[in-house]
Amino acid sequence: MNYPQLNLKNEKGPRAIFNTNYGEMEFQLFPKQAPKAVENFISLSKQGYYDGVIFHRVIKDFMIQGGDPTGTGMGGQSIWNNSFEDEFSNELFNLRGALSMANAGPNTNGSQFFIVQNENLDQMMIKEMEVASYPEEIIKEYQKGGTPWLDHRHTVFGQIIAGYDVLDEIAKVKTLSNDKPEKDVVINNIQIIE
Predict the structure, then answer these.
(1) What structural domains does the chain harbor?
(2) 178 contact partners, CB below 8 Å, separation of at least 6
(3) How many CB atoms neighbour CB 147 within 10 A?
(4) Is 57 an annotated catalytic residue?
(5) Which listed residue (5, 113, 154, 159) is catalytic?
(6) 150 catalytic residue (yes or no)
(7) Phi (first) and psi of residue 39, to 5 degrees
């Protein structure tokens, strides 16, 4: 089995650079495992769809979510103007630094995404993964953090390769009661390198 997130140095294919008001984060994208999610994300990025869009939901030790031009968590759509189906892969996981599609249930992907920030995975969760026959090398990687309970619920389509410090800085911002940052965390633009 190939686990591209564990072998990022050898991964070819498109990358995305998030230029935010907190600094840059760079991601390797995985078109082979999540072709529609990657096509959608690349097309929207190139159209400038995400320019000036905020991370509207930030939960420390969990994830940061963005991609909704309305900034409410209720908006945004795919390049097809419709929801598109989930693309779950046994090669990709919601490890720390994973870039995944946000959704409102099965097959409801649009423009929203989240980046897994969690650094601390409880030992009970590790044991549950062992019981669920997760691959050994993935369990080992999950010890650095992640959200395994989101596997096969949210399509993973990328993985951070630079900018963990920026991710962690954003996760620390002061938020309001609805997890929205008090001061906007803005994606200035997303640059695609193919």
Answers:
(1) 12-193 (2.40.100.10)
(2) 57
(3) 24
(4) yes
(5) 154
(6) yes
(7) -60, -45
Task: Look up 189 and say whether it is catalytic.
Answer: no
d(CA 147, CA 119): 9
> Known catalytic residue: 188?
no
Retrieve residue 169's tokens: 């800085």
**Residue 45 has which token pair?**
């990025």
| Nearest in space to 96 (alpha carbons), one of 42, 30, 33, 150 | 150
Three-state secondary structure call for residue 87: coil
Catalytic residue among 28, 33, 40, 65: 65
Catalytic residue among 103, 112, 117, 118: 103
Q: Could you report the per-residue pLDDT of 104-138, keeping only the tens digit for each?
A: 999 999 999 999 999 999 999 999 999 999 999 99
Q: What is the C-alpha separation between 11 and 61, in angstroms, rounded?
A: 27
